């Protein structure tokens, strides 16, 4: 048979990539503004028409581009910002993928004018749907102007998918706020349909916030400042009496990049614990600076997520410093800085005291029975209903049958990993190292488990089973929880309600700006609910999957991510053992729900080899 694989032509590949990078006019705004900031502009103008659908233009007074670069910048993977893979770990720029301009040019009419300071003349280029229409020499001021017209002109389906002007305009404003707040030293102006909407002169951070969010904001702000080895924190939070019903003004910046983090949001909320009215939301503008090599932002071109090396410590520091500020400014009635920050994590099991492990004797154990290995496994995992340490796997406690079934199915997987003999002694003793890995001896050598990823896998499978096979059970709340969200977040929650019910959430009534929850999944604690939903909403910012299967999958992944023990968490020996056993009872213990390895093994021979040198 003849060969059938072909390389896609560049313009098709660019259009596909554009689907990732450019979802709406606001995505273009973000990319162009960030490029202008990266070009060290001190004055940036944003001009849009019809909420950006007809025009998005950004004019900067930055470095400009040479004639060659002006042409090259539209190529995919063309970037001046990184040269080698290592550079990814010391990023100082917003962009680095080199795909924004190629993507934008594939799906719009783009006109670019650019000139470097030292040059007499500049370059004027027109590109339409990846085709170069013209390139001329022109008399221009220093800097660059990008005009992006008729977004999605060649993809009518995408164009029709855009929301009303009001909604798209809202998204543009959001992006504008994020960039303007991250760079208060830059002069920004913003015009919509010919009217000036914002004029933000270079200023201090406090003035910038006030200029954006009106004069009254000033009296509401309390400064936050903290310097530690792993993070320095700067910024402002609002006094509790000014808390709002919805979550408009909440911003985290990490190394001057806007990010979303349900986990850090939870840390802020924890600092306000006891001083906010039910469901009230504080405003915050928090700037975290961390060493670039301790974060990973290389996740998705448009996502605003970030991975920190030590989220757990960050949580504690952030919470403590906000609490401190609220206290200093006499706005928090209760202060208790001396508490062990570990006790304040949102993880239920942390609050529980360890127990001396008890030896369980299985009276029915018959050494001659053929089902020996499975007995061994399931009797080990069937927990005493009252044993506190089991709370790490509350789900297992609730539905032993389900898990029993999973165990049974998993036996093969497990046995293929370790031969039968090993299964019997699968966990001799475990050691936790660097609050990150759990090491255990197995017959052939040793296994090293990544605690966070392993727990994600365990929780993910539990949630999936609950959602797809069985109706999950709920725990009724004594007092229903009121949680307030923006209108777009409310839309998302409404769309997901059925799947969320399947995990065990019970929704009372639907309002326009808040939800009322009267029951929650058994393996979630009340204090974790808002964190779980935050994370879910931020995971869904690019839209809700179509099929109910992938909706379940997304929810299970997101909940597993929020609830899994984090790197940096101390685990008792019993918790370690449970985690390792739980992992190897999973259907697919090898990888986390995010396809990262959960454990590695080292054979004795490998160790021998290392010592032979
Ligand atoms: P990235 O920002 O990831 O490098 P882009 O596609 O956004 O990729 O831009 C490609 C390159 O074009 C940038 O690396 C930069 O060298 C150049 N560039 C883009 N916008 C500007 C601008 N406003 N001023 C100067 N150079 C720019
Ligand atoms: Mg860029």
TrEMBL record:
Fetch the SUPFAM superfamilies from UniProt. Answer: ATPase domain of HSP90 chaperone/DNA topoisomerase II/histidine kinase, DNA mismatch repair protein MutL, Ribosomal protein S5 domain 2-like
Decide whether keyword DNA damage is in the record. yes
Supply the InterPro entries for this chain.
DNA_mismatch_repair_CS, DNA_mismatch_repair_MutL, DNA_mismatch_S5_2-like, HATPase_C_sf, MutL/Mlh/PMS, MutL/Mlh/Pms-like, MutL_C, MutL_C_dimsub
GO process terms (BP): mismatch repair
Domain (DNA mismatch repair protein S5) spans 209-327
Q: Which PROSITE patterns match?
A: DNA_MISMATCH_REPAIR_1
- Mention one GO molecular function: ATP-dependent DNA damage sensor activity
Can you cite an annotated GO cellular component? mismatch repair complex
Q: Family, per the entry?
A: Belongs to the DNA mismatch repair MutL/HexB family.
Role played: This protein is involved in the repair of mismatches in DNA. It is required for dam-dependent methyl-directed DNA mismatch repair. May act as a 'molecular matchmaker', a protein that promotes the formation of a stable complex between two or more DNA-binding proteins in an ATP-dependent manner without itself being part of a final effector complex.
Q: What is this protein called?
A: DNA mismatch repair protein MutL
Identify the species of origin: Flavobacterium psychrolimnae
